[in-house]
């Protein structure tokens, strides 16, 4: 069972930056991708970004964060990061990382639905003030 722990959230002014970290521990037979989601009050959990765990770190982003957020990985540390810049008040949410163990589609595939993920962290709060 893989445990995920997010950190790095906090309060930041609009236009500022934050870097979130997600450390993984425990046994995992395989990892296909690690991703970031967020959930604002009263809203559904939203996909933000994903990075494939092997190969050339292929990434995919939601349109809402493309160009502002960057996902990266460190396989040696079993960690994934989310660098967020040009933050807006509407980015305020609890941010979660998640692991997809085995792909169920042929070829390169980017999983964006919450139901497709196997493990979740407890989340870290990001608040962006106007």
Topology:
Layout: E1 3-7, E2 10-13, E3 18-25, E4 33-39, E5 46-52, E6 59-61, E7 69-74, E8 79-84, E9 93-100, E10 119-120, E11 124-129
Parallel strand pairs: 2-11
Antiparallel strand pairs: 1-3, 3-8, 4-5, 4-9, 5-6, 7-8, 9-10, 9-11
Question: Could you please describe the fold and organization of this structure?
Answer:
The protein has 130 residues and is mainly β. It has no helices and eleven strands. Strands 2, 4, 5, 6, 9, 10 and 11 form a seven-stranded mixed sheet that branches. A hairpin with a 6-residue loop joins strand 4 and strand 5. The chain is globular and about 45 Å long.
Task: Summarize this structure as a short list of keywords or feature phrases.
single chain, 130 residues, mainly beta, 7-stranded mixed sheet, 4-stranded antiparallel sheet, 11 strands, 0% helix, 48% strand, globular
Summarize the structure.
With about 130 residues, the chain is an all-beta fold. The protein contains no helices and eleven strands.
**Which structural class fits the helix and strand makeup?**
mainly beta
How many distinct helices?
Answer: 0
Which oligomeric state applies?
A: single chain
- Weakly predicted, low-confidence segments: none
The share of residues in helices is: under 10%
- Overall pLDDT confidence: 94
Shape label: globular
Element order: H for helix, E for strand: EEEEEEEEEEE
Instruction: Output the radius of gyration.
Output: 14 Å
β-strand amount: over 45%
Q: How can the largest sheet be summarized?
A: 7 strands, mixed
Give the CA-CA distance, first to last residue. Answer: 40 Å
Number of β-strand runs: 11
